[in-house]
Specification:
The protein is α+β, with helices and mostly antiparallel strands. It has ten helices and eight strands.
Length: about 250
């Protein structure tokens, strides 16, 4: 009586440490049904799916790659039958959640993506046996503690669709804000406001991927060091902000 996506959502909640009671209350599914799904393999794509080549939808992949490098992770299925790709999206940006879900569904050869609600954020999740082949940056530990280098075919996609890659990075670990300052003009102090883009990531490699792509696009950027750490990249020059607005825009 329940479709595959409903079963997967319930089981994913349980895998995240939720009790059967809380999952049952949230989903309306009985505890006995959820328990029975746990006792056997729930329907998932077969493991003999061939290793994928570069994704056909390269635009969606460039965007999803940016999201993954910022807020994504890949984890093995608890029964060792494949992998889940998860991208954490703040609930404050429903348009971003929808864009992430659409991109993941387009890139996933199994064409599945669904949402799992958590406290304060939504995880967009997709199951596929070979996610590590599509995102070879996957590995043990935190991203900033290991080397993050694009494969040749990934760099080709980023070079072909640089703005989608930058958009994914900004939508994950960036923002568009309005700064202000005051100046004395003709003896009168006036307030001036100006927009700027920030990107913040503790991984040197991921920041270099971002700034290297901006360099190729002709967008000027600067380091903003805080507490001795240059984790923040700023784009503030008017012409460059206008370019970012045309191709990226604020989160929504």
């Amino acid at each position: 009586m329940y479709d595959v996506s409903t079963r997967k959502r319930a089981l994913t909640l349980v895998e995240q440490g939720r009790s059967l009671n809380s999952v049952s209350r949230e989903t309306g599914i009985s505890r006995s049904a959820i328990r029975s799904w746990q006792s056997r393999l729930h329907p998932l794509p077969r493991m003999d799916t061939p290793l994928p080549g570069p994704p056909a939808d390269r635009i969606s992949y460039a965007y999803l790659l940016g999201l993954y490098l910022g807020d994504g992770c890949i984890s093995a299925h608890t029964r060792g039958k494949g992998y889940y790709l998860r991208v954490a999206c703040a609930d404050a940006w429903p348009g971003l959640i929808a864009a992430c879900e659409a991109a993941m569904s387009a890139v996933n050869p199994a064409h599945n993506a669904y949402r799992v609600q958590a406290q304060g954020y939504t995880s967009v999740v997709g199951y596929y046996p070979h996610w590590p082949a599509l995102f070879p940056q996957h590995g043990p530990g935190k991203k900033h503690e290991r080397a993050i280098v694009l494969e040749g075919w990934q760099q080709e996609i980023v070079d072909a669709h640089p703005w989608e890659f930058v958009r994914g990075l900004i939508h994950s670990d960036g923002c568009r804000i309005t700064n202000w300052t005051t100046r004395v003009v003709a003896g009168e102090r006036k307030r001036y406001e100006y927009p700027r883009y920030f990107f913040t990531n503790v991984s040197d490699d991921i920041r270099r991927l971002y700034t290297g792509t901006l360099d190729k696009l002709g967008v000027a950027w600067t380091h903003c060091t805080r507490h001795g750490n240059a984790f923040n990249i700023s784009v503030a020059r008017r012409a460059d902000v206008a370019l970012m607005d045309a191709h990226v825009g604020p989160k929504y």
